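Subject: Interface between my chains keeps coming out wrong

I've been trying for a while to get a sensible model of this assembly. When I model each chain on its own everything looks fine, but I need the whole thing in one frame so I can look at the contacts. Pasting all components below, labels as-is. Any help appreciated, I'm running out of ideas.
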Amino acid sequence: MFFDVSNLKHKEINDLIRGGGNDVTLSGCLGQRFIAAGMGDINLTIKGTPGNALGAYLNGAVITVEGNAQDAVGDTMNDGKIIIHGNIGDAAGYAMRGGKIFVKGNAGYRAGIHMKAYENKIPVMIIGGCTGSFLGEYQAGGRIIVLGLETKEKRIVGNFPCTGMHGGKMYLRGDCRGITFPDQVNVKEASADDINEIRDDIREFCALFGTEETELMSSPFTLITPDTKNPYKRMYVPN
Amino acid sequence: MKTEGQVRIPSGCAIAAVISRDGKRMSGEMITNAMKPMHDRSNGLGGGFAAYGIYNDYKDFYALHMFFDERATRKNCEQFLKERFEIVKSEIIPTRKISSITDEPIIWRYFVSPLKSVLASLQLDEKEFVARTVMKINTEMKGAYVFSSGKNMGAFKAVGFPEDVGVFYRLEEYYGYSWTAHGRYPTNTPGWWGGAHPFTLLDYSVVHNGEISSYDANRRHIEMFGYKCTLQTDTEVITYIMDYLLRVQSLTLKEAACVIAAPFWSTIETKGEKERDILTYLRTVFPGLLITGPFSIVLGFEGGLMALNDRLKLRSMVAGEKDDLVFIASEEAAIRVMEPDAQNIYSPAGGEPVIIKVKEGCF
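Reply #2:
Try treating it as a single job with all components included. I did that and got this:
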């Protein structure tokens, strides 16, 4: 169903979505928070600018935003997909533990902060452009992939990526020259096996946004994983 | 009134700003509406606006906006002002009675010019004299508070939600080339009219979203130079720091940004020699004015704006533009209210100042 949600509050919008069947399109969205929070089993398209915490605790729904999204998209999401045809604000995928986030453009600060994984729950976030500082801060699991497409002179990530990383994997397209990583992570060129792990995710990204896959994959990727031989000892307390 | 600790209302402040690079004047209606989608970021304990270019007919006079608790205080204060200034106009600031704004103090404005004889005997320049007078009233005159003291600009603030404060002060009747706005969620002090943002001194105004953790270190440092922080609110200290760095120390805006949101030493090391020397110099000379903890601020001044995030970017801030207009807000939605087709929407990096100036001669 189709709803114009101009001037509606977030609770009213979520009530409309719940009663709107399997396919719902919203227009006139402007800053309302918590849209589709906790929802599963629904296909939602949003025109306009959804507010903070879009798809928080998402549990299986597929959300497509035809524009930019604000902060904390997919906060603690458990399952489902969030597809952003624009840029995304700070703290995207905050503590997500399942599902996938696809962003065509750039991400703000702290994308993927404290992502985590458990058994078959492996969250994935792919950013098409570049990201701000503190990418993957305290990452504990899952895959963060940054492609650096159409970023011109800009570096693929800001300062201090992987600060406090202790699990999961981060893939950055390119050789990452000039980027400083903390001592507690390993940085190496991704092997063919490593690339195979993300091939399906990349393919899905390319299909969603019409990106040319062959050209994208012709560039090397840098893989960052936590260095278990050099853990965070004596950082806060003598241990 | 319940104070902090007795009540918890989860939220976060909101800021917004718009400026015309061509100096075109806009009514306050647009910025008032911009605050609506960010309603949930405030809790009704403070909202306010700063407007530049609104007093063209009195542009050579300092516009003092004041709160008084009662008539006698106002009469006393006027006597005090008359001994120091020529008062060319004195009037009540027009407001609307609306149910969402209550318990207003007496709200007055004076257009004044310092008496030449007083300046000569004190050997002070005009701005320093006005700044000292503001400090004197705000610290010594119980029940009187100057909340705006610049030329051809004014702050308008109250306890309430910002969109209501705009209606209360009839901002649609003012036309300025630059506007800033704030919705408040006070974290450390109970909401009071004087404690709403913007905080101002002379033509500087600051709206701030955040909670700085270096407040007391900054306060002790800045009070060595004659400033008096009367409200225990962190934004007041930021305003005085900006006045000190820009007016007293004559730093550029970019340099001032590098003092309050100084890059980390590890980041400074990666810079070229010249830039490294400058950054090292600024951090060494002004260590007490480094502001730590989350903030996003918009500094308003005559002919321009500067937006700035803390160096860790612990608060959100977005910028965009359309033709001669530049927009800044805590959320993109606020920018889309002001201009649905805003272009080049982006989030400045932490510590990266966004400086917009009106073309010379257009304000």
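Reply #3:
Confirming on my end. Chain A has a mean pLDDT of 95.
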